[in-house]
Amino acid sequence: MFIIQEEKNKWVKYGALFAIAIMVGSAVLVGILGSWDKITGDKDGLTEHSFSDISGKHMNFTFKNAKDAAKILPENILAINIVKIYADDSYYQSIQSSFPGANISKMLSASYADGGLELFVIEDESNAGIVLNTSKPQIETYENYSLIFINPYQKVVVGNPILISTVYDYTAGNTLAKKTIDVLSGKSEGSTGLNDILAYADDVSNYDEIVVFKANTGSSYEKYYQRSSQSVNMTSFQIDLQFESILLNPSDEMKQDLSDLSQNASDGIKFTITEESNIMKIYVEGADYTGFLNDTNALYKIVSNHTKQAATA
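RE: above sequence
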């Protein structure tokens, strides 16, 4: 079982790297906090506080998939990435160093032109703590939530999920956390910019990763969605691999490349392609891990080749 889980993690992480590599503009997924010492300064000044010590309201909401996520995130999202987190992931270890006792099960990242949001779903808020510097941080109260300034670029709002708001230029102000609170409180509407492609996505809760984003101007398609999942029959140890991909307004050349790929699928791997209006959907299914990985990697390459790469910010 360990080998199966290890292979699953590799596959999911590859998909995340692919999504980051071709994501829009300067909006990339927000980096994990990493070493808290580098953020807060003197290691000797670090103290741990239980979430229960943080006054005011705490984050308290759930989301099932990207459709749900868009409803509770501020407008103008360029990309959403949701990935399941496992105890041996670097994400998990990094967050544990900053939020002791916060056992992470899922991460949602949302990218914007000027920054991004990360939300970490945890198993039990009552066991979670946050590491802070005794001389810091500054705390701002907004709508009875405590916005903790970790540095000029980042704010944290505790709860479940944990919310980390990041901006690229702190002089412009960090308003993403407040905008999220406004959506949650009903003061503003959630994001609608990806709804046209999300409307065609399967309404699922069982997956390893979901990625949806708006392509750069000049690409051979407008928006892209993918969902990957893997299940194991514990009696036969048969692996069931599934990959759903959706393209909004793909060019004829891109359609042909994907059709050619499906006609040359690996043994044991099935492609199903359907078209509806301006949407093209590709399902990839199979039980052979090597063949599945080869074919989905080839699909990644086609999408990347048809993506106008953005200049580095």
